[in-house]
User: Fold these one by one.
Assistant:
Number 1:
Amino acid sequence: GFKKAGGIVGIHEGILKADEGTYLTCRAALVRTREGYTGGIAGSLTSNDEEEDGFGSDEDFGEDLIEGGQVEIIRARNQSDSVTADRGSAGGIVAVNLKNAVLRECENTGSVSSDQGYAGGIAAENYGELLQCFVGEEGKAGSLEIRSEGSDALGAVCAVNYESGRVLASVPLGGIRISGDAGAAGGVAGRNLGYISGEAELDDMKTVEVNLSYMPELDLSSGDVSVGGVAGENGEEEKGDQEENWLIEHYRWLQGNRSHRRKELSILRRHCRKKPGRRYGRGMYLFRNHYRG
């Protein structure tokens, strides 16, 4: 495709849903755009073309394209070999998840790449909600690659979670390699400006919780990289000391014993480009505080 390509639909509005216990599955060998948005399930979540050339740089983008009306993709699975954008954003399910859109119970086991833009296992950029979404497969080594050149963030679930974005009970499972020249990389999001939680309350008032027990393999060419088990960077430097909404909570790191977990956290903190303060400290404090007792 040239502008918008998806493994199931190029442009999606409304609700795309599989029956309970089943998945809407893409098994295409290759889903690709030359210049635009590429998703393993849907290329775009709207038919509005006003912003079609704004590849991943405008934070208002997620707010402006859809007015009213819920957009959902429920129980979709991408098993294509590769989702690729030559120029633009690429995501395992959708390229950009918009502000009033929900991706729920979606899975991706295929590689995702962009030669000039963001790339993410579920969505490259998230302005909406990702709920109970998973990337990779447990017990598989290096079978899935998320690669981006020319972007500043890479994440296994999404590259950037914007201010309106919510990532709930969504984690990488295994067999993932993150590669490229980004300066921030995370097990869930490369950069978090919104809300990320290991817990989610479902429609039936039940609460689900996931454990973060896997960190993707990293192959990054940048000499100055921020790395985190949940997010490589938490917050935005330009906001200074303002109190913002970025938040990470309800995650448990389960690799090794308690002392190993604390050691892992200290390693991740030392790799931040700036000393942990308000920008990084808030999310990291919650991460660390979870183990006190």
Number 2:
Amino acid sequence: RADHRPHQVLENPPHRLPPPPAHIRTDHHRRTLTLRLQKHPLNKLRDNSVGGGDSGNKSDKLGPPIPGEHASMPGVDPWKYQGDSTTEGSGPHGQRSPTLKDIAVHEAAVIAATMCRNIWPDASDNLYHYLENTGEAQSINVDGMLEDLDDMRNNSQERVNVMLRDAIDDAKRNAEESGTTGPVTYPFSTAWRLEYVDQDEHPNWFYATGGCQYATEGTITLHPPTSDNPKWTYSYNYRVHVADRYNWDGDKSTQIFGMTVTDAQLQELHRAGLAQEYDLAGQSSIKRGSGEWNE
């Protein structure tokens, strides 16, 4: 979906490929190739497991009430990639010299990313960023994910609903004990949780991240019952954070320019210093809601 991309990073067409190392003669491997694609070039060209990360957010946290209608969002502890393992990641970047085959695979992957830009814009951007070889973190369009992915949107909202219920319970206890009559605001944050994208329903996001982690932060403002309204009323603001590690360890392949390109070959580009794995991270705009508590 290209019409809701406030965090778009790569709006310009792909740059020309960097020249190969001086000791490799690219003219020695040039040949005429015929383009044969099986469905789409990115189908399926990356590992879609959840990037191995960790954070201090081990559980949902409801902060103490603050008198009034305003409080700062508490934030979420940064998601951090815990490093490569035997089942994830490609090891040190540039651990060996590139071969002619590595360079050909890199060129084919750039073609794949370019061809899929209009069909799967986020998947295309993430693959191209990998091939740019910077290793820098890439922004992910969380608003776009929440708009497209019903499960992520509903799961995020459910975490807010749980926090709302806890805040109401706490506010009622405090009101009974102290006779509080004014509004109070609770800051909250939720733990990082896994979210998987369905390949058939949302191929763009499946190839862009596949599996990721999300957490929320926000505030909940509560107004006690009054003579005019016997019910508690509430309003909340929150944002969703998403994180993942873009890396390779799958066993799939596709045909690009008449040559078979596998996950393993794309992984080797990292090891050859021609591409680089990186972190994906982003946050949504602020979401809002309000109502009366009927329980």
Number 3:
Amino acid sequence: DAVDAAIDGHCATASAQCSLRAAVAEANATTGATIQVAPGDYLLNGGAGKDIGDLQLSSPMTITGAARPSGPGATTIRGVGDRVFGVTAAVTIRGMVITEGIGGRSNGGGIYVSRQGALTLLESSLVANTASEGGGVYVDGTARIERSTIAGNAATKKGGGVFNAGSLILVNATVDGNSASGGGGIASSGTTTIEAATITNNSSNNSNGGGIYRVGGTFSISSSILADNNGPDSARDCYGTPEFTGYNLVESQPGCNPSGSVIISGDPLLGALVDNGGATVTRLPADGSPAIDV
């Protein structure tokens, strides 16, 4: 995590090592760089002599890890005292486990996407990050999250997994076990489109949706599962009348007021959140689940 010795086109700290922080510094000085991060557990801000602060991605770049959900094959970045990434440009992050980021009283524990930022997050996991809003990720610009898992994050206000104040597209993703005061999984005041997502086991300590909370803006959901989310009243899976299209399974429909699509009710019979052979951990439906072929 040591800083780059000089911005000279060569990733090298004072001890002639290429740290992730040094690689980001060099990438910020150019356009379109690609950073390949080997499997391993990388600790930001983690000791004497290390630079303190998140990794600010201020120039277009791609950061690629190993795309494994856990174990020695994963590329894991730990925040340790600060958020992990701040995004102010067009950035693609692929194959990363982003964890233990802390936003404190600020938004975005794992990732903060500014109004100038455009994030593409692929085959990655946002796990156990915390913030005021958007424990996993806070979007003020634009974000596309695909084939990824957002799990075990927390916000003291809204959006335990995600808070979107800009434009969010979430595709083929799992949002599980996050918590907040409204929208335990996802809260949005911007434009949100969700397709083929599993939003489960999230919680809110108030009546504004354990799974999702449409604060304002537009919120469209298709071919997705909302189930096993928790809250103090009937609005467990969602609150704020999102728009449903196509086929969806919504276990607890009060608060969602679904219309305009085919809504399947009932228990989706999902398994635990485990490694099922994909890039991230997921929850598979058991045989006989009404969610199969949704």
